[in-house]
Design a protein that fits this description.
The chain is mainly alpha-helical. The chain has one domain. Helices cover 76% and strands 0% of the residues. The protein has eight helices and no strands. It is globular. It starts with a helix and ends in a 7-residue tail after the last helix.
């Protein structure tokens, strides 16, 4: 059965499914951040559970195919080593799924935090779009907006 699953879920298929699969979550975060659907399906453990399952499947898939995970630690040795790792499809898809999961987590945190501080969803829209595309910049823009609504400036919460 695992062989049938792995023959269908190739790396290219997984890439397509991961990219399409996060879009409904982001759509709900952007347009319905205060809805019950957002609370239950997006701002909960649900999407992280799904993306973790995909991540584990990818690790299993590459482990069975003989991928050398020890070489991944070469990324700390220099920029050229990192560039070499990005030439490998295995590392690239694992990195990409990691990136999408972290950005989605950050987006759900922004929505949850903005609800607590009663920040209008129109002000949160731009930081969410930025978080989807370039995570840290979106979080920074949200943090600047957050300072005005929290009525205090703090380096930690």
């Amino acid at each position: 059965m695992i062989e049938q699953i792995s023959s269908f879920f190739t790396v290219d298929t997984m890439y397509l499914w991961i990219n399409i699969g996060v879009l409904p979550f982001w759509f709900i975060l952007l347009f319905f951040p205060n809805s019950k659907v957002c609370s239950v399906f997006v701002a909960s453990i649900f999407p992280i559970f799904i993306l973790s399952a995909i991540y584990l499947y990818l690790i299993y898939y590459f482990f069975v195919s003989g991928y050398n995970f020890i070489d991944n630690f070469n990324l700390y040795l220099g920029l050229d080593n990192l560039k070499g790792l990005f030439n490998e499809t295995s590392f690239l898809i694992i990195f990409w799924s990691h990136f999408l999961a972290i950005n989605l987590f950050c987006g759900s945190w922004v929505v949850n935090d903005s609800r607590k501080l009663l920040i209008p969803k129109t002000l949160v829209f731009i930081p969410l779009v930025l978080t989807y595309f370039i995570g840290p910049l979106g979080i920074f823009v949200y943090w600047v907006i957050r300072i005005f609504f929290a009525k205090r400036m703090s380096l930690y919460d």
